[in-house]
Design a protein that fits this description.
With 270 residues, the chain is of the alpha/beta class. It has eight helices and seven strands. It binds NADP nicotinamide-adenine-dinucleotide phosphate (NAP).
Length: 270
């Protein structure tokens, strides 16, 4: 019997030697995604801007999964995304699974938000994902098989106060997901989004620290507030998101496209 991982749909995720690219692979969720795919036999490439952090992440993943290739790239720069594709092509081959995970998030009230934050958020979370789709999709359509998984957020579906740039970028990412799913529907490629709620990771703790400083409340109270915003009253683990990504990347998920699936403890039901 082939080994499988524990995931939402048991027995759908077989060992696989396809090539997967995870953007933002040095971050909390990106690392977990890369590790899950590497453990499943994928040849994994991770990318992010800071080369040192990226190498450290690749080493940490390689220590308890298969080796991953770390190639720095700023996804806001299309020429860098093109160079990344060339490098991956030369060293491994065509990327078959693209996980657009890189993202930035900063909470600030709308009137206090500098225009630069709006621009940078849109350029990273939306235009960066667009560049990656543009550059890596032709390899998928040429071979008649591909998976694009966009890491969105529950803020892609509902508004939240103080994150207008972030929510706008993630709403946009769902528009891209759905439109591209239609254009690729007969080309062997699926395009889906995962919408996590508050994840139990460093970024959430950093956000909680900032809110704690502003409000004078203890950080534990802020984290409890985040957890309490979900009916399950808990934060989401990164490997819960990674399990869903593995399932969406599998052959047996070929009929799932244009979807935006929440992993949020029941917080958002649309
Ligand atoms: N944490 C949560 O609660 C949560 C909830 C819902 C959705 N999400 C989404 O999940 C994804 C991952 O979030 P996370 O919590 O793991 O964040 P994180 O720990 O801050 O990691 C973000 C990653 O993106 C990379 N990155 C940022 N800008 C980039 C750029 N221009 N080019 C290439 N890489 C870039 C960062 O590396 P460099 O800075 O070195 O480039 C880092 O590897 C994001 O899309 C986020 O919106 C997170």
């Amino acid at each position: 019997m082939k080994p499988t991982v524990t995931c939402y749909l048991l027995d759908v995720v077989d060992l696989c030697d396809k090539i997967a690219l995870v953007t933002g692979g040095s971050g909390g969720l990106g690392c977990s995604l890369a590790r899950a795919f590497a453990r499943q036999g994928y040849r994994v490439v991770i990318t992010a801007r800071n080369g040192e952090k990226l190498q450290a992440a690749a080493k940490a993943i390689g220590d308890n999964a298969a080796p991953v290739l770390a190639l720095p790239c700023d996804i806001r720069q299309k020429d860098q995304v093109n160079s990344l594709a060339k490098e991956v092509g030369a060293r491994l081959g065509t990327v078959q699974v693209l996980i657009n995970n890189a993202g930035i998030a900063r909470a600030v009230s709308f009137l206090e938000m500098p225009d630069s934050l709006w621009d940078d958020t849109l350029r990273t979370n939306l235009t960066g994902a667009y560049y990656c789709c543009k550059v890596f999709l032709p390899g998928m359509t040429n071979s008649g098989w591909g998976r694009i998984i966009n890491i969105a957020s529950t803020t892609a579906k509902v508004g939240y106060s103080h994150v207008s740039a972030y929510a706008s970028s993630k709403h946009g990412l769902l528009g891209l997901t759905r439109s591209l799913a239609l254009e690729t529907a007969r080309l062997g490629v699926t395009v889906n989004a995962i919408c996590p709620g508050y994840i139990d990771d460093e970024r959430t703790r950093e956000n909680a620290r900032r809110m704690a400083e502003k409000t004078g409340k203890p950080i534990e109270e802020i984290l409890a507030l985040f957890a309490g915003s979900a009916p399950q009253n808990r934060l989401i683990q990164t490997d819960e998101v990674a399990s869903l990504a593995l399932m969406l990347a599998s052959d047996k998920a070929g009929g799932i496209t244009g979807q935006a699936i929440n992993v949020d403890g029941g917080a958002v039901m649309v």
